[in-house]
User: Which sequence fits this backbone?
C-alpha cells in the first residue's frame, strides 16, 4: 500500500478543524506523553501550542543533540537547467514566463562543480526544471562522470523518474533524492499545477517510494509553505515522513519546508507563513520525528537561520545561486526564486561555529562502504 492510500484516509477539512479545536490542556497532554502519536502531534501544530513554544524549543534542542550531535552539514545547489515543461503558478521556471532559458553544457557544469569544490563543498544537490527531453538521463550520466570526482555526495532534485532510472543514476554515483510534494491538498495541487507532467499528483507523491525501492541512501521530502494552511501541510508532511521511515528504514529521511519567495510571474502566496509559525512547525516536526533530518535553505533570512540552528536543524545550504551558471559563469539566466541569505559559505560556517556547532562540508563518502 502506498502513502497515497493512507493520505486518502483523512479529509483536509477535518484535520484543519481538529487542529483549531485543540486547547492548552491538549498541548500539555501531548508534551507529557512518552511518545507522540499523530493525534498528540496535532496538538503541537495548533494555535494553542504557541504559548508553549519555549518549552517545545528546548525539548527540540535536546532531542536534536541526542540524535545528531552538535553538527550542521553544509551543501550547495547546482542548477543544471531552468528549462521546464510545467506551468506551476508560483515558480520562476514556469513555461509561460518569458525569461532567459539555459541548460549548462557538461563542461559548464564541471566548471560550476570546480567553483563549489574550491569553496569547500563536498556535498552538492543537482537541480533542474522539469524538462525530460532536455535534461535527459543520458545528459545526467555524462554530467555525473565529470562531477563525481569533485564531490563525495551527490543528490538530485529533478523531475520524477521510474525506479529503474533511479537505479541507473545510483550506479553512477548519486546517493540522494529530493522531491517536494509542494502541497498535500490534492485539490489545491491541481489548481497551482494546471499543466505539464507535474500536474499528476499521484505520480509525484509516489516518487519517494520509488526512490526508496531504488536504494537511495537519503530521501528528502517537503511542502512549499504558502500554498495552503501550513498547520495541515505539516500534519501530512509528518505522516509522509513517518511512512517512509517505517518502509524504507535503510534510507535517511530529511524534511524541508521552504516558504514561497519572490520569483518571475509575481505570484503572491495565499497563505503566508510568519517566522514564529515556521519555528513552531520545525520544533513540532522534530518532536514527532526525532530521527529525521531537517534542512534549512537560503530562502530564509540570515537572522532567522542563525537563531534556528540550535533548535532542530541538521543541514543548511550556503552561498546558493538558483540559476544555471550562477557560480562560475557570467551568464544571464532566470533564477527559480530569490534567496534571502546572501552570505558566503565561509561566513555561514563561522556563524555555525559561533553557535557552538561544527560545520561539516562532507556529508558522506562511498568509501565508507568499502
Assistant:
Amino acid at each position: 500500500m502506498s502513502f497515497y492510500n493512507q493520505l486518502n484516509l483523512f479529509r483536509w477539512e477535518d484535520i484543519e478543524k481538529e487542529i483549531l479545536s485543540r486547547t492548552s490542556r491538549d498541548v500539555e497532554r501531548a508534551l507529557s506523553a512518552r511518545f507522540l502519536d499523530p493525534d498528540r502531534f496535532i496538538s503541537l501544530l495548533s494555535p494553542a501550542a504557541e504559548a508553549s513554544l519555549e518549552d517545545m524549543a528546548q525539548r527540540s534542542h535536546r532531542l536534536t543533540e541526542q540524535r545528531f550531535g552538535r553538527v550542521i552539514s553544509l551543501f550547495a545547489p547546482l542548477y543544471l537547467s531552468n528549462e521546464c515543461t510545467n506551468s506551476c503558478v508560483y515558480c520562476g521556471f514556469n513555461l509561460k514566463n518569458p525569461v532567459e532559458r539555459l541548460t549548462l553544457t557538461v563542461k559548464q557544469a564541471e566548471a560550476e562543480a570546480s567553483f563549489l569544490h574550491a569553496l569547500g563543498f563536498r556535498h552538492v544537490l543537482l537541480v533542474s526544471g522539469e524538462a525530460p527531453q532536455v535534461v535527459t538521463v543520458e545528459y545526467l550520466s555524462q554530467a555525473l562522470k565529470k562531477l563525481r570526482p569533485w564531490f563525495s555526495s551527490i543528490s538530485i532534485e529533478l523531475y520524477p523518474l521510474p525506479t529503474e532510472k533511479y537505479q541507473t543514476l545510483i550506479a553512477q554515483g548519486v546517493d540522494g533524492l529530493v522531491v517536494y510534494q509542494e502541497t498535500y491538498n490534492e485539490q489545491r495541487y491541481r489548481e497551482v499545477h494546471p499543466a505539464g507532467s507535474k500536474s499528476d499528483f499521484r505520480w509525484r507523491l509516489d516518487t519517494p517510494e520509488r526512490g526508496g525501492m531504488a536504494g537511495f541512501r537519503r530521501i528528502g521530502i517537503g511542502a512549499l509553505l504558502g500554498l495552503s494552511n501550513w498547520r495541515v501541510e505539516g500534519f501530512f508532511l509528518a505522516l509522509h515522513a513517518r511512512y517512509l521511515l517505517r518502509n524504507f528504514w535503510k534510507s535517511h529521511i530529511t524534511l524541508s519546508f521552504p516558504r514561497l519567495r519572490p520569483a518571475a510571474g509575481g505570484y503572491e502566496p495565499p497563505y503566508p507563513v510568519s517566522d514564529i509559525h515556521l519555528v513552531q512547525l520545525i520544533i513540532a516536526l522534530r518532536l514527532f520525528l526525532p530521527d529525521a533530518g531537517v534542512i534549512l535553505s537560503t530562502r530564509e533570512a540570515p537572522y532567522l537561520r542563525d537563531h534556528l540552528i540550535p533548535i532542530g536543524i541538521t543541514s543548511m545550504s550556503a552561498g546558493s545561486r538558483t540559476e544555471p551558471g550562477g557560480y562560475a559563469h557570467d551568464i544571464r539566466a532566470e533564477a527559480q526564486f530569490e534567496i534571502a541569505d546572501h552570505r558566503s559559505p565561509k561566513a555561514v560556517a563561522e556563524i555555525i561555529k559561533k553557535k557552538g556547532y561544527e560545520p561539516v562540508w562532507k556529508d558522506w563518502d562511498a568509501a565508507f562502504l568499502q
About this structure: Strands lie at 71-81, 123-128, 153-157, 176-178, 218-222, 252-256, 293-296, 315-317, 358-360. The mean pLDDT is 94. The radius of gyration is 20 Å.
